[in-house]
Amino acid sequence: MLLFMINVAQNITNILSDYENNHFTSEHVLDWVSQFNAPDQGFVLEELQNIFQKTYYSKAKCAQILKLYIEQWIKVFKYPDVPTFIAETVFLKLQPDHKSQCELLNLLDEILVKFYNCNLGSSGLVAKQYIYLDDVLSTGQTIGRNFNEWFNLSNEFDKTKTNFHYLKDKQIKIHVCLLCGHSWGIYNTKYGLIKNIGIEVEAILHIQAYYIIENNIKQYNPKLNNMIPVDNQDPVIHEYLNSLKAVSKSEHAFRLSTQPHEENLFSSTVARNRLEILFLTKGIEILSRVGELRVEQIRPLGYTVKSHKTFGLGTLFFTYRNIPNNSPIVFWWGNNNWRPLFVLKNRGVR
Predict the structure, then answer these.
(1) Which domain of life is it from (predicted)?
(2) 345 alpha carbon, distance to own chain's centre
(3) Least trusted range by pLDDT, from 129-133, 283-287, 289-293
(4) 26 three-class SS
(5) Handedness of CA 66, 47, 282, 231 (dihedral sign)
(6) What is the DSSP code string of 231-291?
(7) What are the tens digits of pLDDT across the range 3-35?
(8) Domain C-terminal end among 196, 213, 230
(9) Which domain holds residue 250?
(10) Which of 119, 230, 234, 255 is at 20 to 30 A from 223, Cα to Cα?
């Protein structure tokens, strides 16, 4: 068993080898998994090896996706070449420098220089389309805040109009292009902006993601390629859920045992059920050591909307530059006698 675990830990290390915020070794992986009960450790490693193979995006993979986006933009917007497209496109930078958007724009710039003989310095000479790049749309609150503010600012090409009215009058679209998007978060983002800005936002804003996490249990036949547990009637789990001050969306806390209809992420339905409960109960245990939790969005399976009475978003998507704090806290919590597998970039920085 020990040799098996060492081999699997090394495989995980190889998959995560370019993660930027901590150096991965098989010893580090084994140390992390040792915090689980001994009978579960081999299972946890083997299942995570399967998941990371599908959902960890290296820098090379992210660059490949950005290059695919470039080729798509040229076809969709009907440009003869990339430099002309870049000159007539505004790439929005609405997040602080330490956030993912700036780093993705830098990576895009490297690709433009290397393959297309242009760069972002020549972008936005005119505005025929706007592009907003980001790595992950989870709840949608970040993008919602960004656009609620930006739509009401003066447009750089016509100071007499807000960005919203300029785009509406000129029939210009914003294309939000993501590495990963949660279907429920995408829906809530559009709904919130339509509510705050106007129905016309629906025609202006287009959101797409290379990898979609179908996490809305109320939609038709969702993949549920994240963590949402089945209710196993564990009193510890129900005691935690009932202790939350949140009151909305409690129907999203558990999935039906028949969901998803087809398992595409975990190695099997049995493995999904086991790993979800392991991560949930361990997350509850970790949070029980905190005392008073000041950030109400933190849940055992990751950050979520504060008002949602759920266990967290349960995101299982990871990139070389960071992992979302919407993923289960067993991955990234670094306090209260728990050692993280992933160190988060800009921990505590907004």
Answers:
(1) Bacteria
(2) 14
(3) 289-293
(4) helix
(5) positive
(6) ----HHHHHHHHH-S--B-GGGSSB-TT-SSS--SSS-HHHHHHHHHHHHHHHHHHHHTTS
(7) 999 999 999 999 999 999 999 999 999 999 999
(8) 213
(9) 2-58+219-332
(10) 234
Residue whose C-alpha is closest to residue 143's, from 176, 117, 96: 176
Judge contact between 192 and 144, C-beta under 8 A: yes
Asked if pLDDT for residue 348 goes beyond 50, the answer is: no
Identify any residues that bridge with 212 across adjacent strands, giving them in sequence order.
181
Helix/strand number for the chain, H first, E second: 13, 6
Query: Could you say which of 213, 246, 267 is where a domain stops?
Result: 213
Instruction: Identify whether the C-beta of residue 162 lies closer than 8 Å to the C-beta of residue 154.
Output: yes
Q: How many residues does the chain have?
A: 350
* pLDDT tens digits, one per residue of 228-270: 999 999 999 999 999 999 999 999 999 999 999 999 999 999 9
Identify the CA nearest to 317 among candidates 264, 265, 259: 265
Torsion (CA) 190, 195, 198, 202 in degrees, nearest 10 = 20
Contact of 321 with 100, CB cutoff 8 Å: yes
Pairing of strands 129-137, 89-91: parallel
What share of the chain in percent tops pLDDT 70?
Answer: 99
Distance separating alpha carbons of residues 249 and 306, to the nearest angstrom? 11
pLDDT tens by residue, 163-189: 999 999 999 999 999 999 999 999 999
Name the pTM for this structure. Answer: 0.95
Q: Look at residue 49 and tell me whether its pLDDT is greater than 90.
A: yes
Contact 241, 309 (CB under 8 A): yes
User: What is the C-alpha end-to-end distance of the chain, expressed in Å?
Assistant: 43
